[in-house]
Amino acid sequence: MPWRSFARFLSITFTIVIGPFSLFAQQLSVTRLDSTKISPSEIDAVVVRLMEQAHVTGAGVAILNDGKVVYLKAYGFKNKEKHLPLTPDSVMTAASLTKSAFATMVMQLVHDHIIELDKPVYRYLPKPLPEYSEYKDLAGDLRYKQITLRMLLDHTSGFPNWRRFTVDKKLTINFQPGARFAYSGEGIALAQMVVETVTGKSINQLMKEHIFQPLDMTRTSMVSEERFEDDHAIGYDEQGESLGLEHREKANAAGSMQTTLRDYARFVQAVLSGGILDLKSRDLMLTSQIQILSKHEFPSLSTETTTANCAIDLSYGLGWGLYRTPYGRAFFKEGHDAGWRHYVVCFDKPKTGMLIMTNSSNGEDIYSGLLERVLRDTFTPLEWEGFRATISFPSPR
Questions:
Q1: Which terminus in the chain has less CB density within 10 A, N or C?
Q2: In this predicted structure, what is the pLDDT of residue 397?
Q3: CA geometry: angle at 297 spanning 92 and 369, to 5°?
């Protein structure tokens, strides 16, 4: 479908209500960070305009006030070719939003004394780490013995993001473990292996027991399931071309989770309100573990630094990015994969937050506009995260 026709579809259908959360959203205004109000119709207008400008196929938006979801609505298509609308219950690949859910589950295991954050992870394994085929590249580099679960969750292990993106395609430790931040999916993969070894359970089983079932996330799994295919979104590339229905057969703590806007909003609400972890574990998870001085989040191993984000105390906790604002601590996480772009940010003091999920590789281009115009969030470190500022247009009052 041409983008002009798609824009007409959005402008005509953005008032369609899907699901009970959306019904609720139509009746209440949303409170922004600065205590001003924005109506559902104003939110609709902003979302539709931004999607049209950025050529975003489908998007879901959830907003939290006082630690509760007060707005939850989907826009656009889950399947553009068949003109099927995206719904709050359409299953999408969570990409790296998976990492924050995984880290939250790990904090439960830490609380239960099943695993420790500061014990070198190799000591949990029945044989030396380099004897595992996935980690044979580490033979001869004894620094692997220094790596702890804390380092894997706060991205200070020294691993690259993924070895497949490196020149030689080998896994290497690129700096002294714990010395600095460098985002690493490889680190989360190792954390998964260690947790599965310690518990004797698969990551899929662990996430169901500790996160999905307690939070009634009924349309969420670490792998694709046949029951999701009645309402499953398709990812689209930068040109709006379909990438086809995605099937994840292997559970991956770094990015395989299949979830919905409604389900992940339940998870975010639980973290924001303290409903999934005890206070001590939650505070530890959302406490700065490492200050971030890198100029950009990616490429993760770049040594280019800046003090530009010191004013907001940009740092990383355990599975979550952190920064300081006049509204207190903020915690955030991005999700980025082919055809999927997601973002969540929450502000602890007012218990306010926003979740954005899209099935479009252009999805990141609507983040700043939504954050600024709907939430009055002007603090997110857009440049560090590699997000572009949204094209200007008149904002709601």
A1: C
A2: 60
A3: 60
Residue 140: half-sphere exposure toward Cβ, Cα within 13 Å: 4
* Cα 48 from chain centre: 22
CA distance 145 to 177: 9
Please report, as a single letter, which amino acid is at residue 5. S
Q: Which two structure tokens, joined as six digits, stand for 394?
A: 């008149």
d(CA 122, CA 119): 9
Residue pair 65/31 in contact (Cβ under 8 Å)? The answer is: yes
Contacts of 148 (CB under 8 A, 6+ apart): 117, 118, 119, 120, 121, 177, 178
With contact defined as beta carbons under 8 Å apart, do 306 and 293 qualify? Answer: yes
Considering only CA atoms, which of 125, 12, 164 is closest in space to residue 75? 12
What φ, ψ does residue 238 adopt, rounded to 5°? Answer: -65, -25
Is there a contact between 257 and 94 (Cβ–Cβ < 8 Å)?
Answer: yes
- Strands laid side by side in the 290-291 sheet: 84-85, 68-79, 58-65, 352-358, 340-347, 328-337, 321-325, 315-316, 290-291
Closest residue by Cα to residue 334 from 287, 378, 381: 381
Residue with the two structure tokens 């205004």? 29
Taking CB atoms within 8 Å and a gap of at least 24, the contacts of 290-293 are 290/154, 290/155, 290/156, 290/178, 290/180, 290/181, 290/315, 290/316, 291/181, 291/315, 292/181, 292/316, 292/321, 292/384, 293/180, 293/181
Residue 292 tokens read as 């971030």
End-to-end CA distance of the chain: 33
Cα 93 from chain centroid? 11
Q: What is the mean pLDDT of the chain?
A: 93
Kindly report which listed range (99-108, 349-358, 383-392) carries the lowest average pLDDT score.
383-392
pLDDT for 14 equals 40
CA distance 384 to 296: 4
